[in-house]
Amino acid sequence: MINVKDQVYGAIQGITENVSDTYPKEWAVLPAIQYTEEDNSVVEWVDNKESKAHLLYKVDIWNNASTSEVTMKVDAAISALGLKRIACGDVADPSGLKHKVMRYEGIIDVDTERVYNNY
Prior knowledge:
About 15% of the residues lie in helices and about 45% in strands. It is α+β, with helices and mostly antiparallel strands. The chain has one domain (about 5-115): STM4215-like (2-Layer Sandwich). Strands 1, 2, 3, 4, 5 and 6 form a 6-stranded mixed β-sheet that branches. A hairpin with a 2-residue loop joins strand 2 and strand 3 (about 50-65). This is DUF3168 domain-containing protein. It comes from Parablautia intestinalis.
C-alpha cells in the first residue's frame, strides 16, 4: 500500500484555511474541506508483492455561499495528481450551508507512483 493522503492534502491545503481529513471542527472558518480515503486496495500482485492499488477519495466542501469556486480549485488540484473525478453533486444540508461532494478514482503503480485512469 502506498500513502497518497499526504499528496492529496498537499494538493488542496492552500485552497482554504479549513482543510482536514476529519469532520470540520471549526465552522467559523469557511469554506471547509474534508477529504477521505475510501479505498486503497490491491488490484494486482507481482512476484508476491503489491504492484497496483485502487484509490478512491471523497472530498466534501461546505460554504455559506456558493461552493463553485472552491470546487473548481479542488478539482484542478486533485486531477493534477492523476486521479479522475467520477462524481460531483450538491447535498442537502440541514444546517443551511452549501455542501458539495466529489469523488475521485484511479489505479496507482506502487513502484513508480504513477496513476492510471482506466475507468
